[in-house]
Specification:
The complex is a heterodimer of chains A (298) and B (262). Chain A has 298 residues and is mostly helical. Helices cover 72% and strands 0% of the residues of chain A. Chain A is globular and about 70 Å long. The chains are: A mainly alpha (298), B mainly alpha (262). At the A-B interface, helix 2, helix 4, helix 5, helix 6 and helix 8 of A face helix 1, helix 3, helix 4, helix 5 and helix 6 of B.
């Protein structure tokens, strides 16, 4: 950041000074691209969510979102995203803690971080295949449990194509993401704080409760929100895993785009708006919390 | 201290089991095609499937086009923002992060509505134009990663001095951009390129809704109709992701430049 002098302090060469009023031209391609392929398409849907079929302003589409079938889609989406975000945050935290502060052999840390980089990007359709091959009806774990322990996983009511199954699958990219983001935060916990605490007679529990956790909670909560948004917008894994049998919002929207299953184009826009509002709100909170977190962890 | 170490090992062991078992399970499943013994039949079937070759080729070309277009869009913009328009930085950064906030399915929904065949810009009117729209969509999806990678690399060099030195030697803008700035941010460009490739190669939502024969929709189709081939494809996809990430690490190690973690 410090390497950018402000514009006034620089002596421009004459040829550049003459072009000065036109320097905004340099970012025109970027803004044109962003407007055409990001901002306009999004705004179009947002505006459409507040219009009826004839183009008049209305709140009817928003009100229509509150019908049971759509509400249940939002509800199960929120539950899966929440469960996978909290699970990812919790397990990710312990993993990050283990490699940063757990006194494990030093080669483990780069190994875990590299693997996390790969696994956090291994989402989409292939991830669904991996879990079907592992926990599906003829998957490795299911078969091993049945053959060697006589335990029939599917007799317990477990189903990979369900809330629990999808949450378990999403954790595969949620946990590594948490590890990647939280490791620098744990690195930022200064040794001196711990030493100061123990000199003052604090136990390990007191140190975590009264020093480390108050510093870490914005990172923890912020990253959980990021994981939440991450799971909420994901569709490929769920679609490949469950087809359209699990009624989550992205799958409902997919069906709506494909074949107008809601029989109302503008209600589809409202459905998309609802997704933007939820992922947007969790990201805004994330950014706010990250700014709080950076106060201590610089 | 001892309990701490045991706790750390337990955390590591649980993590290792959770992450390795699905990978082992997938690999084991992909070998089961021939009854009664392990074989690589599923891989043979996959690799000789003309649809595999066609869709993989299509996505590869699309990935390369996305990288070229993304680099041409991002490098000059990041350069210009650093050199001349630092006050626009927050806005540009905000825009580049938007694709992480707005789900891909929402973005493509917007495309389908405003670029349909009866609009002013009928991108979805012909196949070639739809390919172009898909590429623009992928550039959008990879924007957060590409921009951050390039911008981080640009932070490490003195853009202003390099520019002035090149100018005083009589270089024009194309020379400055492509012969001076570009080689200096190559590490960032490459990191951005590999992550872009990893995103594009198996992407499902955009390709499926724009009805293009990409690798992602092919994977989904195979998954819905076959038993053992999907696991083989999952193993192949995992290898591709691993390969892209390994290249990023290699590039960053060679340049002693830290890749942004997200």
């Amino acid at each position: 950041m410090s390497s950018i002098p402000d514009a006034s302090s620089t002596a421009l060469t004459p040829s550049l000074a003459r072009r000065l009023p036109l320097e905004w031209l340099g970012v025109v391609p970027f803004f044109l691209f962003a407007i055409m392929f990001l901002i306009w398409p999004t705004l179009f849907l947002i505006v459409g969510a507040f219009q009826d079929q004839a183009g008049n302003f209305t709140f009817q589409n928003i009100a229509d979102l509150f019908q049971p079938s759509i509400m249940s889609a939002y509800w199960i989406s929120i539950r899966i995203s929440l469960a996978s975000a909290l699970g990812g945050a919790l397990i990710g935290f312990f993993l990050a803690w283990a490699i940063v502060l757990g006194r494990l052999p030093s080669w483990l840390r780069p190994t875990v971080l590299t693997f996390s980089g790969v696994a956090s990007n291994f989402a989409g359709v292939p991830l669904a295949f991996a879990f079907l091959a592992t926990l599906g009806r003829t998957g490795l774990v299911t078969v091993l449990l049945k053959n060697y322990l006589g335990f029939n996983l599917y007799a317990t009511g477990f189903n990979l194509l369900s809330f629990l199954g999808l949450t378990l699958t999403y954790l595969f990219f949620q946990i590594p993401l948490m590890v990647l983001i939280l490791t620098p935060a744990l690195d930022g916990l200064k040794k001196e704080w711990r030493e100061a605490a123990s000199i003052l007679g604090a136990t390990s529990t007191q140190y975590w409760r009264m020093v480390a956790f108050p510093i870490l909670w914005p990172s923890l909560l912020g990253t959980s929100l990021l994981l939440f948004a991450n799971a909420f917008g994901a569709i490929a894994t769920a679609y490949a895993l469950t087809g359209s049998s699990l009624n989550i919002v992205p799958i409902l929207l997919y069906a709506q785009i494909r074949g107008d299953v809601l029989h109302n184009q503008n209600l589809g826009y409202a459905l998309a708006l609802g997704m933007i509002v939820i992922t947007g709100a969790s990201n805004v909170l994330y950014i706010w919390l990250r700014m709080r977190a950076e106060r201590w962890l610089k | 201290m001892k309990t701490q170490r045991i706790g750390a090992w337990i955390a590591f062991a649980i993590g290792a089991i959770y992450f390795l078992v699905p990978l082992i399970g997938t690999f084991e499943f992909s070998l089961r095609m021939r009854r009664g013994e392990y074989s690589f039949d599923a891989y043979r079937v996959v690799f000789s499937d003309p649809n595999f070759q066609a869709t993989f080729g299509y996505s590869t070309i699309l990935g390369l086009m996305t990288i070229v277009f993304g680099v041409l869009l991002v490098v000059p913009t990041a350069y210009w923002i650093r050199l001349r328009l630092p006050h626009l930085r927050p806005i540009v950064e905000f825009i580049t992060l938007m694709p992480l906030v707005i789900p891909a399915i929402v973005i493509v929904f917007g495309y389908l509505r405003i670029y349909n065949s009866s609009s002013i810009l009928p991108f979805t009117g012909s196949r070639r134009m739809t390919d172009l729209l898909l590429m623009f969509g992928y550039v959008t999806l990879s924007l957060p990663y590409m921009y951050r990678a390039v911008d981080t690399a640009m932070r490490a060099i003195d853009v202003r001095t390099l520019t002035e030195a090149a100018e005083s030697l009589g270089a024009g803008w194309p020379t400055i951009l492509f012969k001076v700035i570009f080689p200096n941010v190559l590490s960032g460009v490459l990191s951005g390129a590999f992550i872009t490739f990893a995103i594009v190669i198996g992407e499902f939502t955009l390709a499926s809704l724009l009805n293009r024969p990409a690798f992602g929709p092919y994977l989904q189709l195979v998954g819905a109709n076959r038993a053992y081939e999907p696991s083989a494809l999952a193993v192949i996809s995992f290898a591709i992701t691993w390969f892209s990430m390994a290249l990023i690490q290699l590039v960053s190690r060679l340049n002693k430049f830290k890749v942004p973690s997200v």
